[in-house]
Structures are given as C-alpha cells and as structure tokens.
Amino acid sequence: MSPFIFGRRAIRSLSAASVEDAAGGRSLWRDARNRFLRNRAAVASLAVLVLLLVFALFGDLFAAWSNEEIDWALLGNVAEEGAPSLANGHYFGVDELGRDLFARTVQGTRISLMVGILGALISMVVGTLYGAVAGYFGGRVDSVMMRIVDVMMAIPYMFVLILFMVVFGRSILILFVGIGLISWLDMARIARGQTLSIKKREYVEAAVAIGVRPARIILRHVIPNLLGVIVVYATLLVPSMIIYESFISFLGLGVQEPDTSWGALINDGASQMQYGTLWQLLFPLFFFVVTLFALFFLGDGLRDALDPKDR
Amino acid sequence: MTLLRVRDLSVTFETGDGTVNAVNGVDLAIGAGQSVAVVGESGSGKSQIMFAIMGLLARNGAAAGSVTFDGTELLGLDEGALNRIRSSQIAMIFQNPMTALNPYMRISHQMTEVLTLHKGMSRRAALAEAIGLLDAMEVPEAATRIGMYPHEFSGGMLQRVLIAMALLCRPRLLIADEPTTALDATVRGQIMRLLADVRARFGTTVILVTHDVGIVAGHCDEMVVLYGGRVMESGPVARIFAAPHHPYTRSLLDAVPRLDRDDERLRSIPGDPLGTNLLPAGCPFAARCPRVEERCHRERPASERPAPDRVVACHRPLEGVA
Amino acid sequence: MSAPLLSVRELGVTYRVRPGGSPPWARARALQAVRNVSFDLAPAETLGIVGESGSGKSSLARALIGTVPASRRQALWQGADLLAMGAEQRRPLRRDIQMIFQNPLGALDPRMTAGEIVAEALTTHERGLPRHEVRSRAAAMLERVGLLPEHMNRYPHEFSGGQCQRIGIARALIVGPRLVICDEPVSALDVSVQAQIVNLLQDLQRDLGLSLIFISHDLGVVKHIADRIMVFYLGRVLEHAAAGELVRAPRHPYTRALIAAAPVPDPAVERGRQATGLGGELPSPLAPPSGCVFRTRCPIVRDACADEVPAMREVGEDHVAACPYDAG
Question: Can you identify the CATH homologous superfamily of domain B2-89+171-312?
Fold first, then answer.
C-alpha cells in the first residue's frame, strides 16, 4: 500500500486515536486495516502483488520484442545464444522457438492472474450469495441448495472439462466456464456455515423483529459480516485457481498457442530442460512461486487483521 | 498473619492502540483464613489483579509492584517455582464453569490428573480422593458422576466440581472469580454457602471477586472496592455497609434494586464506567461523583486510614454516620 | 381494566431438538419451552416476567415478536390474532411491537453506525422518507435516550454497554411502538448503569404511554418497574399478581424461594436468613417432572404433586398461584 498510509500509522498515537474517535467512527474495517498494516509480511506481499499487476499490465512497454516475433538469428542455437541478455533485448532469454521469453512471461502472467482473479470473483459473488441464501432461509431451501452443491462437487470436473474441450474445442472461454463452474462450490459451503452462526446473532433477530425484509437482511446484515471470512478465503482461492489452470495447461489442455500462461510456460520450459535452457523453466516458475507465496502471506495477514480473536 | 500482600501493583497492557492501564497502584493485605471480597464493575481491574497474582496475565500484559504470598515474592518468579506454588498453594475458579474444563475428558480424568502429576499419587488413591471431595461438595452420587463428561452436568453442579478440583491439593488460598455470575439465583446461594463451608472445613483463605455487592453482604468478612484500577475503599464488610466512607461505595450500594424497599426511582450513578485507556490525573471516580470538587479532577487522593481497619481514598469522604 | 392491548391465551412454544450425540435418523424430541400461558396486557401497563434460565421467558418474548413459532390458541393484538398471520401480513404490525435485547453489543450490527442502526428501523416502516428527515429523526431519538448527536457516526464497539443498550432502545422506539418487550435488558450491565437504563425505560414508558413486557431473572429489578409480575418456572406460570403484592405476600413456594434468594445489601439481614436457600437444580426442560414442575425442589412437596398439574387458583384479588397448598 502507499507510503502515505504508512507514515500516518507511524504518527498515530493514543491521543491521536481519541481525536479520531471524536471526529467520526472507527469502523471495524479501519481497525482491520491498521492491524493489517502492522503485519510486515502481508504488506510486503501486497507490494509484490501490486508490482506483479503492473508487470502484467505494462510489461509490454518494456519488452524489446513482441511475444509472437521469432528471433531468427537465435532460432538454430537457442541453447548457446538464447540465454538471458540485456544486449539483445531478450531479458529472460528466448524459448525453444526463439520467441522472447520476457514478452511471453508478461502474456502468461496476464492470463494466469486473470484466471485466478476471475475464479475468486465468481466464487465471492456466486458462492457468497448462494451460501448466504441457503443458510439464512434454512430448512428445506437449505437442504435442496446444498445437495445441489454436493452433486456438483461429486462430478469429476477434470473429466467434464476435457469433455467440454473435446466438444467445443480448446479455447480460453471454455477454461473460464470450467473454472466458473467449480470455484464457487467451496465458498458456498463456507458462506452457509458462517451464515448459520450469524443468523443466531441478536442483531439479525433484531432486524427481523423490526420487520426488515429477508433480502435486505441478507445483503445488509449477513453478507457484510461474512466478508471477513470470504475475503480471506478468496485470497487463498486465487492461488488454487492459478494452480488449477496451470495443471490443465501442463496437461496440454489449457490455453492454446500462441496464448500462454504460467502453467504452459512451465510445461514448455520443463520439456526443454535436458538441452540446458534452464531459464525457460526458471523465469515462469519464479513468477508462479512468488505469486503463490505472496497470496498465502496476504491471506494470512488478512485473516489476522479481520479476525483478531484467533490470535 | 498476612498470607497475601499486594503492594503498589500496576498492570498494563500493550495494545495496538497504545498502553492500557488496567490496575494502578493497588495495595491489599489478606490475612490467613479470611474471606475477602474484591468488588468492582467492569473495567475496575478486579480480575486483572487476580491474574497478576496467579502469573496468568495475557501475553501483552505486564505487572509491576510486589505480590508476596506467605513471604515469597511472586512477581518475576520463574515459571517452575510459580507452577509449584500455583499447583499446591493457590487455586482459582472461574465465572464460566463450562469453559474451564476440557469437554472431551471425563471429570475423573481431569481431577485425578492433578493428583497423579503433582502429588505422585496412584490412580486408585487419586480417584478415591477426588470422589471424597465431590462428596464433600455435595455432588450427589459422586462415585458414578465422576465418570461423566462436563456437558452432562448443570452449571451449578459443574461449579461444585470445579471447587472440588481447586481443593484437590488443599490450597491455602482460593481465588473465586465471579463464581456465581453465570448461575441462577436459587443456585447462587448454594454455591456461596459451599464456599463458606470450604473455608470453615479446610481453613482456606477465600478471595471472592465479584460485581455483585448483594452476595458480599452475607458471605464475606472484609471487602475491597475498586474503581478504575484503584482501591477506593476497604475494610470490614459490616462496617462499610453500615457507613461507607467513599461516595462510590455509597452509590454502588444505593444502586442495587432492593426487594425490601419501595423506591420510586432507582438511584443510578450518572455516566459510564471508566474506559481503561484514559487514566485521569485525579480521582478515577471524579467524573461521576456526586461530591466532586475541583481538586478531585486535579489531584489523586491518597489512601487515608480513618479507622485502624479501614482505608479510603477520597478528598471528601462521607462521615461515618451509621 | 380497559380493553387489553394484547391478550394471550394458552400460548405454547415447542422446539424440536435432537440430544447431542444422537444419530441423524433418531427422532427429534419435543422441548416444550412455554406451556399454556395466558395473560392480558392493558395499554400503558408493565408486565414483569421473572424466571431462571430455561424457564421459557425468552421463548415467550420471541413467540410474541414472531421470531420463533408459537403453537396453541391465540395471541390477540387489539383483536387480531398474531399467531394466525403470515410473515407479510405481520410485517406492518411489527411496528407496534418492538423488542430490546439482552446483549447490548450483540444486538447491534457491528458494521453499521449508531445512526444507521436507528435509521434502518425508521426507513423499514416509512419508505421514501427524505434522507435529511431520517437523519434528524434518528438524531432526535438518540438524544432522547441520552446520547449525543456526534455519536451518530460511531460504531457499536466504540460504545460502553450502557450506551449500546440506549442505541437498542432508540431503535425500538423510533418506529413508535405501542408495546416494547424488554428481554433481560439490564442483566449484562454494571449495577450503576442498570439503574440508569431502568430509569430511562420508566421515563419513556410514562412519556410515551407504552406498554412494557419486562423480562428478567432479577426479581429486584422487575418489582421496581412492573405493575404486575408473572413467575415462570420450566415453561409454566406459577404465580401471577400485582408486583407489590407478589413480593409482600407470595403464595407459591417457588416465588418465596426466589425472594429468599435475592441478595439484600445489608449484612445484618443477610446473615439472619442464610438457612433458607433452595436445594437441588433446575430439572432438564426435555424431561420435566410430572404433575407440578416445581415438585422436585419444593420444600412443601406432597405425594399428590406428582399426579396432576396444579390449576391456577385464585388466592387473592387479581392474584393467582399454581399451588393448591397454602404455604402459610
């Protein structure tokens, strides 16, 4: 996060806190943010992720080569001359076809992050609403809704995905559909479980007693109080979606050339390992591992910040 | 003989929002065999004093001052020595008996563990001892019920179990932290009578930490009234109830709704109990006190001894008219 | 007595529960939390309900505001049967019956400011009210219960317990209810603050002509605020009388025990009556004793007590007790 907020935190003392109190409310979110900012590993992870996002969005501007262009000068002897070099503009070297690996990594990062974030978003929106509705109404509604989730979970998704790809052909869209279908299931279960406990809180009962309608109770009272858990779980879901995509791509079923993703790049790199072009594996792998670590630390930091009781 | 002496005890907590002063310079002297009530509202620091004595403060808490138990300084004592004192000389029971026991272990296991580990007794002897104590605590059918799990007991019965557990090692001091607050009115009396009985039979000194002045009247000899982490007043229960010196004590006694009186309005104390992070320069009760004067906000009143057995910290104490 | 605002006849609340550890196919057992309760409540009257934990007093409150289903007979609200209504039919009536909860902080949504909490109640019943009016009316109500206008923007966790309870009272009163059900409104508060809240409720009741149902385990508080008191034990009413009379001349042995157990802050009185405590424990509501529910702990129990449920007996003017024996 920005250094500005860091500075403000540093000068925030007890007296400053009470002045703030008088001026306006200190919401739980703000408390959580302060706790989060105190967690160095989480803040550093956030910075890493922001840099990664910048890399994915604007990396192209720094690339000397485009991701599709083949450097014919290197094509024959990638192993000897294709290594990373500032001189010829291939910062990360080239792949086995002589394409610039830096540009390919930017492209792969874009797709992998998109998959991860999209999966997490779908699960946050669909899963949370679905789980909250099931948990809030309970009884038969709950039973039916959750059995649907159970059935969907029981379907071997990898098989379904492969089937989809065979029928509709390999495309990034099908990949997203596949991810969209499975990503929200766990979230729906988590949201439902939390809703069951929130439903018993007196403030929800108070809202019912006042006459607030169920839809508003779910949106205004249940979901905001679920968000802490949801956000944490979503940050853990991003890496699992990325891994999921990587796995599919690693099997050769994911994104299609000339598109690429971390999984596809790692797959290509791994298959070229015996020729001594280790950079083809290590650069995408580095990005992959760093992102996963950053997301895990971020999720950890968010959990501590949003759920201080557990520490 | 003084069993427990607390001198100038302060407890602070480091939190994200700064330092919280929970206890500020408390002095206590508790004689062997006495039954002393430590009375205060939420935020008065009453429980934190006990945690400091037991060395059980939360990780971000620190105690300063001195606590001597039978001549041994407890603050700063190493964990091993403290454990020896805690396991054999001082015991504590808590407000919620349900959370004080492991729900997955039988009562028999939890009770005998203490004896086999600390006293090296055989399992059989330990079990006999435990059953004997449950009997003494009037737990019906002790020999059968000891094999049950905590959730199979009612709250009142569980509190008896906990008192029995606390007595296993025959402690010289028993600290009861709000032992009846979670219990029903008709069971509350039973537990208080039991504590009185324990004191008579085992000679145990009892410290009763409570917010309820009502139960203090019938069951304790001495009382200490806390507010904002400071001692407002202390002395014999009968004399304080008859003629409190501190305006806070007076207000607290008046605020109890009484069955034996017909008041048009309850006598409340205006304002709210003190938040522990704002430590006023003067008397902590000044903001709510009916007898407040300018000096009270500025200057912290010193502890005075209007009579040999009484202490009061007030610039304008009430005179002792019964 | 004038026409009752609320008249409850033979109301019951039954929960289906599965004892812990039983297999999922085991049949649920019926827990009768409230059985056969009848009473009338006049406008501007306060009915006190006293009972220990598990006595069903909170279930009664929840049945009346409709958050748990009630069985048997009827609860007439100015002639309309609350229990026969569906949720949608019931919604406009919720305005008339409001509730104040036991846990001052727990009853407030931690993610909403005090102002939003109070405003939500208002906008639920008066849709399309202009924002500035919602704000000013919420502010006025918060001020009425003793909070400051600048408290509007604060969150529940920044208030003390007493202040939270004031917000809860403001939320209940802003819609202009006729009846407010107070479920243990002061039991989570410090003694000094308890008195403030009780006094506030009394003032509001007098000024607004409210009816109150005041539920507490503390007979001292109830006696102070209530006109009439019902004593609950294991889901049944054991005694019902005017507040002063009930405390002065209790007729049911349980009421006597409750009065004896109420601590008096006077050492001389306390020491003089130490022997009069009640023995035993509250039986499980899943398996209440046959006949009189109090018989397992009753000091004057007789053999006949186990046979049938004692009927409510007129023992004085507007004073009934469910005990055929006069403890004298």
Answer: P-loop containing nucleotide triphosphate hydrolases (3.40.50.300)
